[in-house]
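Example 3.2
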Amino acid sequence: MKILDWYILKRYLLTFAMMLLLFIPIGITVHLAEKIGKILENEVPLPEVLLYFLDFTIYFAHLLFPLFLFLSVIWFTSKLANNTEIIAFLSSGVSFTRFLRPYLIGAAIVAVFSIILGLFLAPKASEGFNSFSYKYLKKGRKAVDNTNVFRQINDNEIIYVSSFNIKNNVGQNFTLEHFEDNKLTYKITASSIRFIEKDSTYRLTNYTKRDILENEDKIETLKRKDTLFTFKVGDLTPPLYAAEILMYDELREFIKKEEARGSTQVGRFKLVLYRKWSLPVSVFILTIIAVAVSSIKRRGGMGVNLAIGICIAMVFVFFDKIFGVMAEQSDFPPIIAVWFPNIIFGILAAYMLYNAKR
């Protein structure tokens, strides 16, 4: 029985590796053909281009490798079925559940690889991929939401700027409100705020401070004032891909801070957090579905199994994208958006496995 396990497990892992080695160069070639004009136009140095495509490879593999796994399992299991090897296995007294065991061992190995990739490698690759894209390939598109910035920076202070230019660190129509015991104690306004990096100070133009006192308000006005604040420039406008470039513990802390600050991007950030664990689970679900679909010898051969598999994979991606957009653009709970496709396809996997056993 160990011979059978090793035979299937080796086919499982080798076919998956071959699928990655085949599709990743295709993805790189297509992406290069699409972006080569902008790369040449911006005269990007060759080392930066090479590093970008290394990051793209990791980013692309992490994004699509469950689908590569799904198709690879269908591919080699269909070959086993067409060669009547599965019939020989089951006729020797091996139950379908026992036949499935090496597949689940292979899925566990790939799931561990997925966790390592998602927690450690993908964040670094995502940082390089996104920063290069916004610097050279998406000129004119903003990596940050820098209009009408309204944020709670700590337990007592709320700030607002109508717009913030991240290139020169200048914000327009700045307001800071300070509260004590839910009562406004003072308010600072300025027509503009500029961060001076060499001094780590903020320069306020047309500065006004209003202290709310019991009997009367105290007002201070200055044409220009240099001062210190507890917030950082990066806290005002974190990039839209900020969650993708953080390690797991850093991401959890970042989300807590963004929730306290009233960020509108919390749903997007939570999607990234929950997908780090939902992706490994989808490996097992897609493996079971792939085996159930392709273990039957069909009249149309391997092509029919691949066609069915591709349809199922497209529906899975459709569900994942639709619910992801709902969580980003509305109050739809991100945890449901991430796990709902796994629940639906988990039920489908159980149903198909039951029929395959019969």
